[in-house]
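In this supplementary section we document a worked example of the pipeline. Step one takes a protein sequence of length 1010 as its only input; no multiple sequence alignment statistics are reported here. Step two produces a three-dimensional model, which step three serialises into structure tokens for compact storage. The input and output of this example are shown verbatim.
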Amino acid sequence: MLFRKILLLILFIFCSNQLFAQFVLTKQYTYENGLPANEILSIYKDSRNFVWVGTRYGVFVKDMNNFKILKRFEKVQYNNIWTIVEDKEHNIWFGSYGQGILKFSGQDFEQINTFKGLVSDRVRNLFYINDLVYVATQGGISIIDTKLKKIYNPSFEKSNNIVFEAVSFFEYQNKIYVTTIDHGIYEVTRSKLKLISPFDKINYSFVHHNNLYFSSSKGLKKIPINDFFNKKLTYVTYDLPIIRSHNLSKKRNSLLIVGNDVGAGNGIVSEITENEINDQTEKFKITSDYPYRIFNSKTDDLIYVGSLDKGLFEVHFNHFLDFSTIDNKRVIEILKIKNVDYFLTPEGLYLKQNNEFKKLVKRDNFYNYMLQNKEKYKNFLNQSNKDFYEIDYTLKAKNLRFYKIIIHEESFLIATNLGLFELDFEGNFKHYLPNKTNQFTYFDNQFIQTNPFGGILIFDDLKNIKYTSYSAAQGNVPKDVVSICQNKNAVFFGSSLDGLFKYENGKFISYLQNNQFNESKLKMIKCIGNDQLMVATEFAKVYILQIKEDELIIKKIINIRDIGGENISSIDIFGESILIGTNRNLLVFNKDKTYMISNEQGFVNKDIHSSIFDGKTVFLGVENGYYKLDLNNLLHQPNLTKKVLITDLKINDIAFGDEKFSWFDLINKNLKLKNNENNLAINFSIVDANFPENYKYRYRINPEEGWNDYFNDETIFLRNLRYGEYKIQLEITDTNNGEKQIVDLLSLDIAEPFYLNIYFVLLSFLTFGLIIYKYNSNKISTLNKFNQLKISQLNEINQQENKRLQLERQLTETKLTALQSQMNPHFIFNVLNSIQFYILDNDIDNALNSLGRFSHLIRQMLNLSTKDEISLNDEIDFLKLYVEVENFRWQNKISFEIDIDSQLDIYKIKIPPMLIQPIIENAFVHAFDKNKLEPKIKLSLYLKESYLQLIIEDNGKGSNNNGTTSKIYESKALKIIEERLQLLNQNYEKNIFIDFHDKGTVVKMNLNIQ
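The serialised model returned by step three reads:
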């Protein structure tokens, strides 16, 4: 027995130490950051890992970092939820103080109140066991049989007229008991409540480890439960406020309780272990005076604490990051010597030993020691020495500022704005020097510091101020130094303007000048062992450099701006982990993974001033204290599979109704959509996401497609999807640990457009066939009618003759009009002769068609004939129309080509109207006969200095009929053209040339266009 007690004691001490060593992160949700109300009346995390929050204003469910109200409950205005339980069918039961019970099955809800047989609508507590829901109310007890769907209201007797107020249930030996505030403890059966003990004033009760606990305003009483039922009423009383809630934590092997006193607050969060009740309010970082409900997560190492004044607290145990303060002051430097941690703050030097802080040396102590010792250096201070920064000794103690601390041999060297102090490890002053510097180190028994005006001072005897000054004017000597580090071989300097330097064997080397390392604007450097160097630049790049004698080899480059940061506050390497502090996150690079620690995980103070590593924990000094980072916990976080829900879906901006969802998830994720249902908005959520702000997403519409860009909101927009099948996949990246998970989100089958449907295609072919049939029928009918018309025309020769005479009259009138309009008579008569040919041939239709086109041509000629000049483009358009009219008689047999010099602007160049037409006309009339194969006329336009050269070529008779052709081309029209060209060109030289050859005729004309 003794051995067992000793073993339990050892296990308890071990567990206590383990719990104490755990890092705790507490996230708080209030109405300022997403929680709809700060007064939390109930909390429950169900088997689906949904976190339910009951408030005075309704029921809310935690969705990532937000809280959504159940709109279905709003319809019945259900609020004031005091208690929540789950049955074995995973339905959720809500108890309202004033509106009875609401049962939610994922889609539908059922309200159970006094109208349905509940003893009272003022529900205080619910207890579920063996298919029965026990309901504690103001006014009695109800028992709901979830299988039989019956309600039992057991009768009871009471000894006074005070309202019967049931508060809590407990189970013992397969029996259920209820405690009341003023009437004692009853055994509960379906028919009757049997009084067990008239215990007065019980506000809450629970059983743990065979002990029964009663809570009231007089404290928490504990009694072995066997003693209680055997009437051995010997209690142990704990001075605690009224306990309001309890929950068992198997992972912590403890019972968690919360409580507060009405009005006074005195809030407490405690753990009950084997024989102890430990107040964990401060450790769990619960800042509320009124903690009211507590619930332990069965899937994560965390608990939820609901308060009546400060919202919901989410407490994460075994976290990798913890934050501590030292009088809420900035931690400038952290040093570790054996088992003692030293912290330099603006108030002085602290040490931490046995988990306790005490102030070792105050700022005033430094100031007073300076006053006592500065007179020793009176002569030195009176000198005008530009190698040292000037010290302002008029400053008061409150103005003393600490810069840096290093360890040298068995002492600290602490730099301030009032000089350099040497202290031993017990905090005793050893020496003072009037030497103001903020960048310095000890190397090979030499003290090395920066010079205020650029350059380096190297002391062989620091105490007697014997040194050698190296001016920056010497070339390789650094200036504007912002960071110094050293290994066993050399000292390295980082300059804000001149890059990286090294001091070794009495000489300086500039890596920028010798092109070993071309970054010039450095922010900080860090020596890693004896063969590596870590360098951060002003432009947020970090280099890992291999040192090989005087050579630098770049091993790795990290561009922080590619990861989302802008500035760097800290760099270091601990083992295989690279740590980089930025203005946004703390980045940890380990092997091929990147860990990003953000605000949500507790990294709030971003400006890191110092860092050390004790082999397990990284200490980071920041503005208001320091962080402890457990690298092992960070690198070995469990990577749990994430469940993704589609919580909302809109198609063409029309939302799916509630009936399409169950437990906040879309029921059917294989959708068949119409062709026009191709614009989707998909809202998704990750269940039980502890740090959702660290997630980033991207999606693809099919596994063989590429991923889209990363995004952070839980919404996917798909616009104008084509018909076909889609398998939409979501990739979730946890930036905290770099883990990725691909989820099949939704499958779509968008129907093809109606015009591609096989039935539509067949119908279209059928319709088209009918149209063709109808067209052919109409055409045959038309031809028959036309033939009948021909017969009628032959029978009515007189009428036909009259029509012919009428056309001749029209031709005569047209000739007169042409003559009056001063048009080229040669062209007019030739065209009219062509039309007359159709008339004489009785081809009335072609005559009418040709006459119509000719009329269009005449109108254009009338328009052009009124102008002295037209653009070359207009002339070309006219020629095309003319050729079309002439070619009608040839049945479009003669091809007409136009070749235009690219240097010509046919819209700006002006020429006389109808200058080219007569030549084209002669080609039509005289160059070809009906047997000519592929007759062709080509017009070419070239720019020759100040002249426009026009070349008209045909492949007609040419020299085969020279006699006739010569007469043709010496016609009156050509003479007129020659005279017009002489007038336009203002010369009497030959301006038109005709060349006859066996392949046709070429006519060249030159026109001055200046």
